[in-house]
Automatic annotation (TrEMBL):
Name the UniProt record assigns to this protein: Cupin domain-containing protein
Domain Cupin type-2: start-end pairs: 30-84
UniProt signal peptide: none
Length: 102
């Protein structure tokens, strides 16, 4: 078991790796209201679970809101991002692991 520190992404967002293996990584993102997850893409398949808060997501050409208990999957290399409408936490899983977060 390995303990990872929280890393400030910017003034509104922090991330912390919760668990990892070469095949899978789980990461918690804590957002303050107004925080932005800038549009990006990566080769990893991503599952996102909204633990708390409210977020507006842009995934490819879709826009939708999520709240506590909502989850969805983002396919490999699909452009996505979000805006935090109400402070909270997203828990993302990546397959395979995102080595850039280590």
């Amino acid at each position: 078991m390995h303990s990872f520190p929280s890393v400030a992404v910017d003034d509104h967002v922090t991330r912390r790796v919760l668990a990892d293996s070469p095949e899978l990584m789980v990461v918690a993102f804590d957002f303050r209201q107004g925080g932005i997850g800038a549009a990006h893409h990566h080769p990893h398949v991503q599952s996102t679970y909204c633990e708390s808060g409210r977020f507006r997501f842009h995934v490819d050409d879709r826009e939708f809101e999520v709240g506590p208990g909502d989850s969805f999957v983002i396919a490999s290399n699909v452009v996505h991002g979000c805006t935090c409408l109400e402070g909270g936490r997203l828990v993302d899983s990546f397959a395979p692991r995102r080595d850039d977060f280590l």
